[in-house]
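Structure (tokenized):
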């Protein structure tokens, strides 16, 4: 069974073709990196998987079920089993670490006892057990990134999308968090689709690297 499938998908923005007849299959539990320069369609591909934008042509399937077709979402973002980590982290500055992680669980109406258990499990995974009551502004950049990651993982998505989440970190911290992402992927078994323009990140994180150019996969690149 294919976890994600694009069938001849196109997407235009203001008259410019950003995704051009893209056909792509990603299997369950794969680690796939979308690699290429800015503006080549990588982030738009993530947004199409998540359901934040709709294709102008073609079809998108998850678990062999149609979730989008030309001009129409057939399954809303919240019903796709997808979690996303953004480049800007999008943490709530007025909430504590625990409240940020718990936010998505509350939205899914998870019982309080289960929410508390899941929050504790997540912070323990990334060594933030002593920071439950801290707010994002009191954390280092690496700690904020860990909170953003486990906030996404707390709702147990089958697919995790990451849009250049390590691009603002220094090299040593970038390398450390790559290893943590690999460990979490191995432990939790989600499908990972990761966007970057860093060749080092692509090589470290991708079991399969897809080279993007002008909204298509460039099979000649390496």
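Design, position by position:
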């Amino acid at each position: 069974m294919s976890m994600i499938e694009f069938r001849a998908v196109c997407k235009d923005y203001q008259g410019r073709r950003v995704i051009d007849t893209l056909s792509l299959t990603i299997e369950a539990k794969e680690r796939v990196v979308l690699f290429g320069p800015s503006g080549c369609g990588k982030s738009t591909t993530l947004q199409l998987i998540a359901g934040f934008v709709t294709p102008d042509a073609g079809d998108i399937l998850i678990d062999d079920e149609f979730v989008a077709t030309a001009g129409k979402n057939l399954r809303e973002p919240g019903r796709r089993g997808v979690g996303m980590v953004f480049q800007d982290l999008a943490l709530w500055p007025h909430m504590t670490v625990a409240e940020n992680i718990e936010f998505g669980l509350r939205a899914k109406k998870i019982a309080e006892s289960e929410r508390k258990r899941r929050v504790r499990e997540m912070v323990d995974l990334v060594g933030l057990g002593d920071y439950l009551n801290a707010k994002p502004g009191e954390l280092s950049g690496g700690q904020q990134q860990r909170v953003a990651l486990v906030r996404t993982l707390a709702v147990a998505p089958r697919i995790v999308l990451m849009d250049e989440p390590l691009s603002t970190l220094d090299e040593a911290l970038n390398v450390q968090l790559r290893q943590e992402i690999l460990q979490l992927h191995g432990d939790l078994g989600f499908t990972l689709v990761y966007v970057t323009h860093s060749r080092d990140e692509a090589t470290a994180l991708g079991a399969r690297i897809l080279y993007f150019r002008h909204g298509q996969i460039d099979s000649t690149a390496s």
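Reviewer-requested clarification: The chain is about 30% helix and 30% strand. The longest helix spans residues 171-188.
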